[in-house]
């Protein structure tokens, strides 16, 4: 199609009846796609994440809803696709989160996604939005959480925060729960240990 200098309207997506915002363009192997947010008809409710496949000539395809494993009756916004992990990161104010908008992720592509998971370690009772990675494990997001620099009250405005995924600690919650199932422990020692010269059956030493 003929392209004019400057901004060009995407007629396949644009509409005076619907709100379209927050585009993110990604390439899945040889397939180029734009994810975006819209309240257009055919969604699950509120704002949904949609996609449009871009052909080799730069034409945009008819919008496709990202599906029920991404979208809900609430608002789903700020999509970002992480090519290193094959996961979509987005924010939602659906029920079951910590409060406000929480960051979620789901593995897949286009409109084929696994069930989304809440990123508990990043979310608070405020709003967490616009997560993006600048390398495989590190990135930024915005939040109005307590601690954000504001001239007014907490939860007023968004600040940019950084994060880094670290290797999982050896002491996982599952392992810790298993350890607690064996407590209290009964320890046995040789004679006169750990306290010398006593007939006591217990000790005040800590192990």
| Shape by Cα distribution | elongated
Return the average pLDDT rounded to an integer.
87
Low-confidence stretches: none
**Element order: H for helix, E for strand:** EEEEEEEEEEEEH
- Please indicate the percent range of residues in DSSP E strands (runs of 2 or more): 25-35%
Distance between the termini: 75 Å
Structural class: mainly beta
Rg value? 25 Å
SS summary, helix count: 1
Strand element count: 12
Helical residue percent band: under 10%
Short descriptors:
207 residues, mainly beta, 5-stranded antiparallel sheet, 4-stranded antiparallel sheet
Structure description:
The chain has one helix at 173-180; strands at 20-28, 31-38, 48-54, 64-65, 76-82, 87-92, 102-109, 112-113, 117-118, 128-133, 138-143, 159-164. The strands form three sheets. Strands 5, 6, 7, 8 and 9 form a five-stranded antiparallel β-sheet that branches. The chain has a four-stranded antiparallel β-sheet with strand order 1-2-3-4, with no helix packed on it. The chain has a three-stranded antiparallel β-sheet with strand order 10-11-12, with no helix packed on it. 4% of the residues lie in helices and 33% in strands. The model has no long low-confidence stretch (mean pLDDT 87). Strand 7 and strand 8 form a beta hairpin. By secondary structure, the protein is mainly beta. It contains one helix and twelve strands.
């Amino acid at each position: 199609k003929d392209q004019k200098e400057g901004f060009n309207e995407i007629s396949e997506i644009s509409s005076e009846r619907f709100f379209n915002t927050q585009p993110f363009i990604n390439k899945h192997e040889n397939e180029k796609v734009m994810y975006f947010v819209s309240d257009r008809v055919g969604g699950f409710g509120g704002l949904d994440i949609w996609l449009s496949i871009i052909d080799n000539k730069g034409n945009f395809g008819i919008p496709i809803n990202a599906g029920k494993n991404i979208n809900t009756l609430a608002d789903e916004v700020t999509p970002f696709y992480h090519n290193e992990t094959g996961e979509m990161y987005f924010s939602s104010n659906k029920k079951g989160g910590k409060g406000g908008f929480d960051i979620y992720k789901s593995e897949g592509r286009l409109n084929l996604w696994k069930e989304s998971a809440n990123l508990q370690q990043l979310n608070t009772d405020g709003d967490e939005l616009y997560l993006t990675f600048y390398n495989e494990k590190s990135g930024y997001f915005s939040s109005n959480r307590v601690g954000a620099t504001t001239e007014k009250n907490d939860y007023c405005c968004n600040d940019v925060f950084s994060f880094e995924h670290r290797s999982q600690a050896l002491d996982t919650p599952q392992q810790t729960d298993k350890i607690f199932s064996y407590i209290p422990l009964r320890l046995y020692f040789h004679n006169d240990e750990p306290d010398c010269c006593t007939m006591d059956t217990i000790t005040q030493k800590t192990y």
